[in-house]
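[Q] Does anyone have a clean structure-token version of this?
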Amino acid sequence: MAIKCKELVYTPINALSFRVTGGVKTLTAHKVNGQIQSLEGPKGLNISLGLTLEIKNIKYKVNIIEKAFAGKTIYYKVSMAKRTKSSTFVMPMLSGNKRLYFWDRLFVNCFIATEEDKDCIALLYRWSSDPLYIKFQKALAKFSIFKRKYCPTSGYEMFVFNVPKKHVRNYKKFLKGQYSKLSSAYKKSLLEFHEAKVRDEIGQILYKDPKRHRALEAKLDIELPEDSELLSILDIEIETYNPEVYKLKKLI
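[A] Here you go.
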């Protein structure tokens, strides 16, 4: 007979989030307006918004707590922030693929603006002494569109680039939420960057997949015009770097 795990298990997902699995039935989620504010558990456990926690030597600021499912199994996803739309649709303008950019380990988010930079491509990373990351840093600084590097807050590095001239039009279309109007060549490069197929979510957005169109209509309970984009327009505030969102606090 199988024995269900009653211990809580904490697993990093990437530089933004970690997962809580195992004995999640021992946790009580406290909500305000439908949003989880904290998770309380045995032995005084309290995971609440604003705290900084260390999971397997990685520090996370708790800004988002979500209940999720893997099949029928419940787990909680705890995050500093969501992936920005810029990470999906603008970062590929730098070429390469997400593995080359430490996407699942050190890359935090991409932005279209910082406190001092406008209309740019800004990449936020967790600092690391890994020799491969040090080599990667030097490679980024050699990009012809490289603008500057700075440390916005302890434990992070920001790399700021100008928008490549060949992608200025695509960049402007992105700002307007015109995902399906990105150039054919860039759509192909974007899918290659994310190692995605046309049938995947990104491809469905870029090529206005009818199934996604119908699914959105059902979800929103409205009839969408045939020429509607299949992803909401960007929120400038979210796509602009805010140090307070990512700033790590001292551990309790």
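[Q] Thanks! Anything notable?
[A] Residues 201 and 212 are 8 Å apart (CA to CA).
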